[in-house]
Amino acid sequence: MGTIGPRGLLDTVAGTPLVPLTRLLPACPARLFAKLESFNPGGSAKDRSAHAMVADAWASGQIGPGSTLVESSSGNFAVALARLALLNDLHAVCVVDPRTNPATVSVLRALGAEVVAITEPDPETGDWLVARLARVRELVAERADAVWLDQYSHPAAVRAHADGTMREIDLALGGAVDWLFVATSTTGTIAGCLAHVERAGLPTRVVAVDAAGSVLFGGERGTRRLAGYGAGIVPALAEGLHPHEVVRVPDADAVVGTRALARREGILAGASAGAVAAAVARCAPRLSGTVALILHDGGLPYASTVFDDAWVESELGLTPAEMDARVAAFGEDA
Predict the structure, then answer these.
(1) How many whole angstroms separate alpha carbon 131 and alpha carbon 123?
(2) pLDDT tens-digit series, residues 19-50
(3) Lesser CB count within 10 Å: N end or C end of the chain?
(4) How far apart are alpha carbons 213 and 248 in whole angstroms?
(5) Are 276 and 183 in contact (CB under 8 A)?
């Protein structure tokens, strides 16, 4: 069937900048670099995964003009899929939950996607992801033309980050990547990074940054208020996956990390990026050499959540004064 198109905007996927972080943790003995995935056209690393998955399905004949793509997403993958659908005469149906940022929902509708919002978590597990996936299966069964590419199991997502994200970091740093910190959810990004590290024979120690309350890598299920990292199921992509370390970051610590990135480096990033920053701060005393942080998305869609004092106080119980004090002290107690 050829390749997906049109070219132009889609050619801007990947090749994102890697920038030094000189102010985030000034006492850290290692050199820190941030991979800014917000520079992708959809504002996140999910542009890479979505592009690879749709291209694979298109080339194989699984989908074509007029196909309906149904997917579960906390936001970023949905935005990437919606744009790809728009530019290739496909129809995107995105299943979201109440944790999805309102701005993201507006963007999805602006791009012509159909938004299906579930209102209750899974009754047995209390997890929103489990409920979203159940709704996806229902929609695919109801619609004859519907296809679920499944970002939680599709190998093209892994290849996108092995051949793209981690390869770019490796080339930019000349193979001298001692540590890599990457947030996990579908685990496509970290699986790809681990694959490149292994095949290139890099000495990189890969750290999975997971949410407190996530079941990934043996975690214990709990309440999670932030979308974008952590998971309520163990996806197929995580099977046989063994990061060198796992750091679990509570919601409040992720928000502090997000705000520290903004206040100290001028980087507006999302909740998972804040979790990555918090994990690096926790590990800082034993870091050395060169450390890369993958910051999965930008912060503007989070203006009404992690950057909103009223939301933080209501959802996480931290007053503005308490939050300011924790951001000011970020990294000092590592």
Answers:
(1) 8
(2) 999 999 999 999 999 999 999 999 999 999 99
(3) N
(4) 8
(5) yes
CB atoms within 10 A of CB 117: 13
Q: CB neighbours of 220 closer than 8 A, spacing ≥ 6?
A: 213
Helix (H, G, I), strand (E, B) or coil at 247: strand
Q: Tokens representing 140?
A: 């695919």
> Taking each helix axis from N to C terminus, what angle separates 320-328 and 251-260, rounded to the nearest 10 degrees?
60
Residue 128 · residue 100 · CB < 8 Å: no
Contacts of 300 (CB under 8 A, 6+ apart): 43, 103, 268
Residues in Cβ contact with 273 at an 8 Å cutoff, skipping those fewer than 6 apart: 183, 257, 258, 261, 267, 293, 295, 296, 297, 299
Helix (H) or strand (E) holding 276: helix 271-283
Could you tell me the pTM of the whole model?
Answer: 0.94
Alpha carbon of 27 to those of 22, 122, 333: distances in Å? 10, 44, 11
Question: What CA–CA distance (Å, rounded) separates 334 from 207?
Answer: 17
Q: Convert the pLDDT of each residue in 43-102 to its tens digit.
A: 999 999 999 999 999 999 999 999 999 999 988 999 999 999 999 999 999 999 998 888
Q: Which residues have C-beta within 8 Å of that of residue 120, sequence separation ≥ 6?
A: 131
For 138-180, give the DSSP string.
Answer: HHHHH-TTEE---TTT-HHHHHHIIIIIHHHHHHHTTT---EE
Q: What residues have CB less than 8 Å from 329, skipping those under 6 apart?
A: none
